[in-house]
Amino acid sequence: MKTKTVLPALLLIASACLAATEGPAHGTLMIVGGGTLGPELVDKFFALAGGKDAPIVVIPTADGVEEYKPYYLAKTFLGKAGATHLTLLHTNDKARADSPGFTAPIRSARAVWLVGGRQWHLVDSYLNTRTQKEIEALLKRGGVVGGSSAGATIQGSYLVRGARAGNELMMAPGYEIGMGFLKHAAIDQHILTRKRERDMGAVVKAHPELLGIGIDEGTAILVARNRFTVLGKSKVAITTAGAEMYFLKSGDSFDLKHRKQLK
User: Fold this and answer.
1) DSSP string, 210-238
2) Within 10 Å of residue 260's Cβ, how many Cβ atoms?
3) Contact criterion met (CB below 8 Å) for 29 and 187
4) What is d(CA 122, CA 181) in angstroms, rounded to the nearest whole number?
5) Which residues contact 162 (CB under 8 A, 6 or more apart)?
6) Which one of 4, 58, 181, 230 has the fewest beta carbons within 10 angstroms of its own beta carbon?
7) Over the stretch 28-58, which tens digit does the pLDDT of each residue have?
8) Is residue 238 within 8 Å of residue 212, measured between CB atoms?
């Protein structure tokens, strides 16, 4: 009887280990849990991009606004911090997002920033389009992709809170696939501020191959290859199959391949 009880648990853990969580082979991801970005996060993004004069593409589509005014970029945190070479890229038309002309600014950029809002807008506009492919090419060139809130969650391979009906639903059929810059991972945001830290448990239970990463506001993970480092004022929650959820703080590093904190 004991064997029957233990075996399913062992199989669950084994299946999780088969799918290694991987960051991009080149370039860096800056994945922010929402809220205000402190100077340590802003300065780090500029450093990764190559400075305040580096060409940076801002994609605000998750906001759900039809059109953006000419002064929009100046009011973003990047504009306020002194960025001089910002380009706004936005469409609600997936065919346009799949066109060479629309994606041209990404080909000459050093960084892309994905603004927060609702994840499904990003899925409907950009998933599996030339826009996504050009962002992946930017990473291969050694660039940086950053995003906050919805712009953080879309970077995982499994998309949580993607439902059109509301962001309370963690798993939404038709909106469960992210852009996969961080493979075999699901990313949640605002976790402590909105008391969401344990919501990832249901996702990992249903998909034990995933690494669950929850990021609080004003906090980021910097992902390079198979590890990430925590930066910011709050915490990051780690949820894996067969283990208790636990927190990481600023300065902590994590081994994605082996799914363990680095000492």
Assistant:
1) SEEEEE-TTEEEEEETTEEEEEESSEEEE
2) 11
3) no
4) 14
5) 119, 120, 123, 153, 172, 175, 176
6) 4
7) 999 999 999 999 999 999 999 999 999 999 9
8) yes
**Quick one: which of 151, 162, 163 has its CA closest to 215?**
151
Q: How many CA atoms lie within 13 A of 99 on its CB side?
A: 10
Instruction: For the sheet with 28-32, list strands across it.
Output: 86-88, 56-59, 111-114, 144-148, 28-32, 219-224, 227-232, 253-255, 260-262
| DSSP secondary structure, 44-82, as one string | HHHHHHTSTTS-EEEE-GGG--S---TTHHHHSHHHHTT
Spell out the residues 6+ positions from residue 170 whose beta carbon is closer than 8 angstroms to its own. Answer: 160, 161, 199, 200, 202, 203
**Both tokens assigned to 68:** 């953006």
**Among candidate residues 34, 31, 25, 24, the one with its CA nearest the CA of residue 45:** 31
Rounded to an integer, what distance in angstroms lies between the CA atom of residue 16 and that of residue 254? 17
pLDDT in tens, 86-134: 999 999 999 999 999 999 999 999 999 999 999 999 999 999 999 999 9
Could you tell me which of 63, 29, 72 has the C-alpha nearest to residue 48? Answer: 29
CB 61 within 8 A of CB 92: yes
